[in-house]
Every structure is written in structure tokens, then in C-alpha cells.
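Appendix B. Chain record.
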Amino acid sequence: MSHQKYLIALDLDGTLLNDEKKITPRTRDYINQLSDDGHHVIIATGRPLRAAYAFQQELGINAPIVSYNGALTSFPNNDHFPKRKRTFDRHVISEIVASIGEDLLGNLMVETEEHVYLLRHDEELNTFFWNDRGTIHYGDPFTKLKEDPLTLIFLFNQLDDALKASITAKVEKFPGYYIRFWHLSGYAELYQGESTKKEGLEHIVNHLQFPLERVIAAGDAENDKEMLAWAPLSIWMKNGVPSVQKYAKMTTTEDNNNDGLVSALKAIIK
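C-alpha cells predicted for this chain:
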């Protein structure tokens, strides 16, 4: 057992989870042991809290969670942890969608802590975001929203580099708002500069008064780059988006289907 304790922030998809969206037994047992040994194991994901919490329970750990890419940082069943919540102004994002043009959209998802708003049914989004565990409302979200949401996901009918550049320029005319395109898909997500996984983790580190030099972050995709650049000990998954590798200090020798996370963590935690 390592006498030096670490705070270990783990992305879900492509990192902790294999391509079947499952935690392998070897990875689960190792992460569970790290938690039992006194390390802080933090899930940091773009998924909603309900999905992250289910994986946290599977791992058998009890810790804060960074969800919605940092828009919500909370500690389930712990009233003493100060929740950090960053929402979108619903009036501003309505203007952003209008400026992009609904004719480009195959779908749109907006979510608060309690409700999911979808332009139309989307089984892929429902599965990824565990929407079967939330209250779903179909139709134009902006006619129904009564509070500012945590996330906004676009599905574009088609995307190429020119269209991405045009959409990005339209979004960034609204101060503090940015768009991130999902690798090799038609999906994209809106985010704000102060709402990344990095900010969520900083909130946890500050609350715990944990030494920054012992923070580990592991991830694979565009929504991980801020926390990978920030963490002194950061791991990029071999299976990850190539452009993200430069933000991390080390790369796994195996991918997410072959417990790549385990061997990388073992190289750090002696």
C-alpha cells in the first residue's frame, strides 16, 4: 500500500469504461482497492450525475463527483460538501441556437438537475445520458424551460470543417460561451470557460485542502484537455483523441479495452 495518498480524477468514456461502456473486473477491483487504501477517487465526466453515481456505486467508492463536464460538482449523500453549480443562461442559449439555425439540427438536448428536454427522441443520447432515469420532455426546449440548464447537446445533420468553423464563430460571439465537437460524430456540446472538469476538480482540491502535486487526472478526449494540462500527474489513454495527447504528462501502454488505466496508475502509485 502506498503511504503517499493521491487524488485520482478519472474520466468515464474511453478511460474508466471500455468500448462496451463497462468497467472491467480488473480495473474495478484495482480502483476499489485504491479507495480502500485511502486515496481519493473522483469520477470526472461529461455525463449527468445520475450516470456517474451508478458507476461510482459499482466501484464501491464514496467521494465527490464532477459531472456535466464541470457544470456540477457534488458529493452524493453528503450535506457537508459545498455543491458547485454553473448553469447556462436559458435566454442566451436560446439566442445561440437561433443564430446557428434549427435547420442544421437533427436534435437538441437541454438538461437541468431534474429534467431532460429533447427536441425529439434519440435512443443514442438516451442511452449515453441514462435518460431513462430522468423526466424527459419532447419538443422545443425553450418553450418549456423554467430554469437555467446545466448542459446543451447538439446533433447536427451534417458536419465538415467549414461548417464547424462557422458554428464556432457564431457561438463565440456570445461572451464566455464555447462549443466542443465530439470526435468522429455529429454531436457537439456547449460549454462555458469556467465550467470544465478542471474547475470542478479545483473546487474539490481546495475543499479538501489536498496537495496539488499529488493530483492525478486521466482522460482521452477534448473535454479532458483542461484537467490533463492542469494536473501535475496526468494520463492520456492510448485509445484517445490524438490532439489531446499533448496535454498529458504520460500515455498508457494499453487501451481502455485492456485495462490501460491500471498499468498507468501503478506506474505512479507505488
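Further analysis of this model is presented in Appendix C.
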